[in-house]
Amino acid sequence: MTTQEWQQDFAARLMHNEGFRLRMYLDSMGIPTIGCGFNLDRPDWAQGLVAAGVAREDTPAVKAGTLGLTVPQVGALLNYSDEPIIPQARAILQTSHFDNMSDARRAAFADLDFNLGQEGLGEFARFVSLVDLGCHYIQTDRPTIGHTYFGQAADDLEATAYASQVGARAKRNGEMLRTSNYVAIDAFELT
Question: What HEC string does the chain produce?
Answer without folding.
Answer: CCHHHHHHHHHHHHHHHHCCEEEEEECCCCCEEEECCEECCCCCHHHHHHHCCCCHHHHHHHHHCCCCCCHHHHHHHHHHHHCCHHHHHHHHCCCCHHHHCCHHHHHHHHHHHHHHHHHHHHCCHHHHHHHHHHHHHHHCCCHHHHHHHHHHHHHHHHCCHHHHHHCHHHHHHHHHHHHCCCCCCCCCCCC
